[in-house]
Amino acid sequence: MEFLILGAVRRSTTQEQASPWFSVCAVLPLVFGISVGLILASGVYMMARSELYNSGWVSVSIGSMVLMGILGGPVIRSRMNAIRQAGLDNGTAAPLNRHASDPVVRASLFIRLAVGLAIVYLMIAKPGLSESLILTGVAFALGAAIGVGQGWVQSSAVEG
Hints:
Elements: H1 2-11, H2 15-50, H3 56-72, H4 77-88, H5 94-100, H6 103-125, H7 129-159
Helix pairs in contact: 1-2, 1-5, 3-6, 3-7, 4-5, 6-7
């Protein structure tokens, strides 16, 4: 949803084009909170049923989900609020596009996506602790590199 919202806002040339996306953006924290709660509850239930308490991949997966929550909440909350505020202000779409192209928001989004895919892999492969940590670290680094790299490509294309 964040990909869709931020992409649509960045492509908007007027405030009117971007405004429908702000109602969706306003409910995202609630939807994400409920979904994370359900995912954690079902994961803890499955962990308890299969007695996987001491598995390295389980600990890394839970820690990674906490990291994703931090990256999706406190780290970008003020930036997402700035996007919403720019959408409410009357005027040109330039400030809105600038806020929607924030490299921290973009990097956070790609990191969370990469780490989420790493968690899915951990659930399938069930590696040990060290392999799980390495895989999650590589996913974090790749997500950050893609998020920052995409911003560099976009800013180069705008300047050129």
